[in-house]
Write a structure and sequence with these properties.
Strand content: 15-25%
CATH architecture: Alpha-Beta Barrel
Mean pLDDT: 97
Number of domains: 1
Number of helices: 8
Low-confidence stretches: none
CATH superfamily: Aldolase class I
Radius of gyration: 16 Å
Oligomer: single chain
Bound molecules: D-xylitol-5-phosphate, zinc ion
CATH class: Alpha Beta
Strand order of the largest sheet: 1-8-7-6-5-4-3-2
Order of helices and strands: EHEHEHEHEEHEHEHH
Helix content: 25-40%
Number of strands: 8
Shape: globular
């Protein structure tokens, strides 16, 4: 089964609880929460207290995407706030291995995100340390950007690497940025099984119907890349 993770960055922050219930009832599988610090990326979004508040109303897992420098300093805080998946950027710290270990020690799934320019070879010494690999399909920082087409090739190569290592059923592959109804099946067929979509869902005329349409498109694909 493929999973849809609406990015709450494009939700209505005044009505966050309403929007969370709306996407969950429509069939979203997890909530993607974008944390930005104004240093790793040129934008500031939400922090620990808001993640804690989301957790109070969420009935699906909280997928927390840290776009912050030195993420290891905040791993405990975000785990305590209720992250079910906690993803750090490989470009954001010299201590990637330490950060991934710290996340797993808290019983939380450890994710590693790669910017568009970052080669898959950074994963070479980390295959056994990740539960999720997040492939950025835009430069992180903002919702509503165009999908970088080169990502499809990167996803295909990542899928092959996972299969050749016997990890296809153990590691989730998430794609984030510019995923919409018109390309979601292409992105999934290339090798992703967790599809983040922000503006594609929340800026739609009818967001619940959009989630149902996305799920229908994904169900029509061969379920060879089921989420572990
Ligand atoms: C970008 C964020 C994304 C963003 C996706 O830095 O990590 O999660 O909200 O938004 P869309 O789907 O609008 O590209
Ligand atoms: Zn994100």
């Amino acid at each position: 089964m493929y999973q849809i993770a609406p990015s709450l960055l494009s939700a209505d922050f005044v009505n966050l609880e309403r929007d969370i219930r709306m996407v969950e009832q429509a069939g979203a599988h997890m909530l993607h929460i974008d944390v930005m610090d104004g240093r790793f990326v040129p934008n500031i979004t939400i922090g620990v207290p808001v993640v804690r508040a989301i957790k109070r109303v969420a009935t699906t897992p909280c997928d927390v995407h840290l776009m912050i420098v030195e993420p290891e300093k905040f791993i405990d805080a975000f785990c305590n706030a209720g992250a079910d998946i906690l993803t750090v950027h490989v470009e954001a710290t010299p201590h990637v291995h330490r950060a991934l270990q710290a996340i797993r020690q808290r019983g939380v799934k450890a994710g590693l995100a790669l910017n568009p320019h970052t080669p898959l070879s950074v994963l070479d010494e980390l295959w056994s340390d990740v539960d999720l690999i997040l492939i950025m399909s835009v430069n992180p920082g903002f919702g509503g950007q165009a999908f970088i087409e080169q990502t499809l090739d990167k996803l295909q190569r990542l899928r092959q690497m996972l299969e050749s290592r016997g990890l296809a059923d153990k590691v989730m592959v998430e794609v984030d940025g510019g995923v919409k109804l018109d390309n979601i099946d292409q992105v999934a067929a290339a090798g992703a099984n967790v599809l983040v979509s922000g503006s594609g869902i929340f800026k739609a005329a009818h967001p619940p119907q959009m989630i149902r349409d996305m799920n229908d498109k994904l169900k029509a694909l061969h379920p060879s890349q089921a989420v572990p």
